[in-house]
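Components:
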Amino acid sequence: MQEAAQYSLVEDGAGGPRLELSGTLTLRAIGALERDLQALSGPIAAVDLTAVSEIDTVGAWVVCRLAREHQADITGASAAAERLLGAVRGIDATCDMRPARLPVWERVPVALGEKVYASRAGLYGVVGFLGQILIGAASLLRNPGRFPIRGLVHQMELVGVTALPIIGLMSFLIGIVIAQQGSVQLEQFGAEALTVNLVGRITLRELGVLMTAIMVAGRSGSAFAAQLGTMKLTEEIDAMRTIGISPIEVLVIPRILAATFMMVLLGFYASVVAIVGGAVVGELELGIPFWTFLSRIQEVVPEHDLWVGLIKAPVFGLIVALAGCYNGLQVRGNSEEVGRRTTMAVVSAIFTVIVLDAFFAVFFTEIGWG
Amino acid sequence: MTGLSHASDERPPIVIEGLANRFGDFTVHENLDLTVRRGEILGVVGGSGSGKSVLMRSIIGLQRPSAGRIDVLGHTITELDLEQGVGVRRRWGVLFQGGALFSTLTVGENVEVPLKKYYPEISTELRAEIARYKVILSGLPESAVAKFPSELSGGMRKRAGLARALALDPELLFLDEPTAGLDPIGAANFDRLTRELKETLGLTVFLITHDLDTLYEICDRVAVIADKRIVAVGTIPELIATGHPWIEEYFNGPRGRAARESHARAAG
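Structure:
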């Protein structure tokens, strides 16, 4: 074990008391001693290091500080100690560890104002992004040979095919829950046969597509933002621009087309699986045979319910992909920003999808597709 | 630590015997031996992919070797349990290639992290003071203390990384390509800083580099990794005298000659 750091005050009459330090004056041993030294009051004429067996920069710093505060001399330092004292002596820094923060009554309005400006910049950014996509799409139309067909197929696989198991499971369970909970309520009116209408209409019109859009936003919208954001950080996107490849054409358009197209298929698939889930409940709980349930669906669900779902699906897919790609390309600076932008992509996509869904509901009812 | 401390401890700080590192079928090191002497700056050179960084990662315990024995500061790294690991870990500092600063903390707070972790008994004020003077010792201006790593240039980030590596007054300092990506002036300043710190603080420095100027200016000895092992260790003239083809090409290539001539001019 090493000898602890100690101090003693020696009164020898020569201009004031002398502080004698002894033992190991290192980071490892100095914690308690430093508090005691800070608490020392009264004049100290000299700090004596003769009995110090070991010293590092922290010890030297504490000694220097003590000598400065008491205008004391440092005596008895060995050559090595002298070197360390010399290294830290001139340093007198008092700055804060963190950048200064404004007081709260200034900080809140400032933050609010910055948010307003940022949202204006965000609006410009979104409009500019849409414009870039249109330009990219137009130039692809003029040069169809440049169309990134491989990227499109790859993205369709990622967005669509690999999502089948999770979306199937989710929809199946949703179908079960709607049928089971709906039948409990409808039973009170003796109308449990209407469970078929309930399941068929709500999944085809609303839930199939809406839940799929939320799932795609979580799976693929976030992936778009994180991928593009990371490529932005590693300067891949800048490299593409320098070579003359448009990132919009190569990265953004395939993702948007893939999400838009696959949302239609996934939404339809989700509705069908949910109806199957409802039919399973019908068979097991309500005494409606499985095939009867499915053929009843054809009778009670108007065809326009299917169209309502299928018209909404590509719009939702487009929104999810736009939010993901836009936020990904907005990443600047560090890795924290990738996480922030990914969150933002998912949240804004889901929010916009739900708001639009409400508009669609009103719109389709008004045009008589109720 | 200092010349005063560990005067009794004359064992070399790093001893590597028979080290082997394999990744699947790919062998990086085979039968590698190396001894680092106390108080020297040892430069480690080797071609790209020759396993310089893997060697450093093995020494600091980030990479478990396939075979061999590594002793650091009297502890066998390969056999350490967690508690002993903490004891030896706080006696070295590591500067990673990109600085590896924690991006959500300011430079000052980055330096405070190891202090907080290993010495919680130190008062908050003293900890802040230590962080400040370490930042300044590393050659950064005082204003850098409260800045975030994203606000710093590459060279400043390396200095901030160095400040964090020095936070615990280590005996051993590992530097992974400290001058890579710096302009020649910045690189020369960093070399001078390394040398000064080594002399003032009595450090032993394990330095991975590609920079021939660094090798000539500040390294006491140079170890060469080639053919999966250390083929030679010594001063640069000693290395050239071995006649190994890779060493020959390395030091007698156009860049090697230019560095030697400029070093000779500066010395003469």
